[in-house]
Amino acid sequence: MTHTAPLTCTPASQEPTIHSAYEPQTGTWQYIVGDTATLRAIIIDPVLDYDAATHALSTHTADALLALVDANGYTVDRILETHVHADHLTAAAYLQSRLAELQGGNRPRICIGKRITNVQKVFGARYGVPVEEYEGAFDVLLEDGEEFAVGGLSVTVMPLPGHTPDHIGYMVGANVFCGDSLFHADLGSARCDFPGGSAAALYKSAQKLLRLPEHVKIWTGHDYVSKERATPVPCLTVRNHRARNKHFAQGVTQPEFVARREERDAMLAEPKLLHAALQVNIRAGRLPRPTALGLCLLHLPLKLEGAGW
């Protein structure tokens, strides 16, 4: 995992210090957002390492976040999810447990948008997850437009459905952590073909972001490097997106965007970590209840082709 330099915005009394941490295996940006005056902080979209070939879980990436918290003397009040991710496992439950130990029992709350309950029911039924393992898994279900404090900072919940129906963002000062709503300008936007996803809804969410003042920074949930751009970039300004975003610049209309997004989504393969990610993430990062032999098991749906089954 690599870290960008912390970004401190002004004025310090209203703007956070932002530490961005990139996880290259899944192309995920994670964030620690801190108030330097009070040393209170939040963590956004943390990653739990999972090797699909060996089914091994590890905490290297999450432990690097803990080291960054410790190096800055932060007390973490909340762990925030923008949505139920389908491409990586969340480290929220692991971090909550470790931070409670490190903070003398001060247990950060795991938070997500209120529409998570519908997503949990859909994927709980799909994978046979017992209701008691996901119901109440998140400590706080956030309302659209809700505001809460982190030290001297104010965080506002911004509904951003489209990529998934439960998707939200977090506005802190002149910064929005938009999850998978917008990617880097040369990538455009995220897919919308998951259950409850909607390209039309994502268009409206993107317009909401692009109507913000042009100096506001939009911090993305993912970036994918290429030969043309070898260094991942965590944020661009609203001005950058208005001028350069591959899917929204130059006055693209909703019908145009929907047609292009749906055509693109129809060609995409499912995320490599889809089944493991969804089953763990609807549990807020907690593992399935162990069997009598002490094994934590996930379900893998089979695709049956041909006749005779």
Automatic annotation (TrEMBL):
Q: What is this protein called?
A: Beta-lactamase-like protein
Which GO biological process categories is it annotated with? glutathione metabolic process; hydrogen sulfide metabolic process
**Which superkingdom?**
Eukaryota
Q: Which Pfam families match?
A: Lactamase_B (PF00753)
Q: Which InterPro entries match?
A: Metallo-B-lactamas, Mito_Persulfide_Diox, POD-like_MBL-fold, RibonucZ/Hydroxyglut_hydro
Q: Which organism is it from?
A: Massariosphaeria phaeospora
In this chain the Metallo-beta-lactamase domain maps to: 27-222
**Annotated PANTHER family:** METALLO-BETA-LACTAMASE SUPERFAMILY PROTEIN, PERSULFIDE DIOXYGENASE ETHE1
Q: Name one GO molecular function term.
A: sulfur dioxygenase activity
